[in-house]
Amino acid sequence: MTRIIAGQARGRTIIVPTEGTRPTSDRAREGLFSSLAVRWGFEQSRVLDIFAGSGALGLEAASRGAEEVHLVDASAEAVKNIKHNAQVVGHPKVTVHEMKAGTYLDRMAPREFFDMVLADPPYDFDDVDGLIAKITPTLADHAIVVIERHIDSPEPQWPAEFTPTGQKLKKRTYGIARMDMAIFERDSND
């Protein structure tokens, strides 16, 4: 059973697709979102959840006060579940997109829009660095990007625009999952 951890929809149960997804555990979501809440908060933020699966990550952000949430998944079954879960959470500005993450990002760019991007690609997804490159043009200044990977996966190579030194901001592990995070900082000369 998967549930919303905190916020206005706290405790509400959401459904997950029966196949093809690997839902982020309640423990991992609670740790991730507690960390994000302390440092950034969610009020007035525009959040993108790609490879959304059940939508648990984006809907957790919605429950905690995000202004607007976009959930993207290519699976018809996942999208059906996400739409159901969005109704359970009851946030007025949740939009569900049935398409590949790359296609969605190509259609968004370049639009400096998202304050937070949550990406949980399949563990066998092998182009995380390319994904980060597609995410970058959609980011507002000082946006945070979180990528969930298997702990044995190579760490992302964050471009120079992420954190002052271009290195990862934080890394958190929960069981076999690793959350890599970085802050995007637009060049002041742009």
Automatic annotation (TrEMBL):
Alphabetical UniProt keywords: Methyltransferase, Transferase
Record has Transferase as a keyword: yes
BP GO terms, sorted: methylation
GO molecular function per UniProt: methyltransferase activity
Annotated protein name in UniProt: DNA methylase
Native species: Corynebacterium casei LMG S-19264
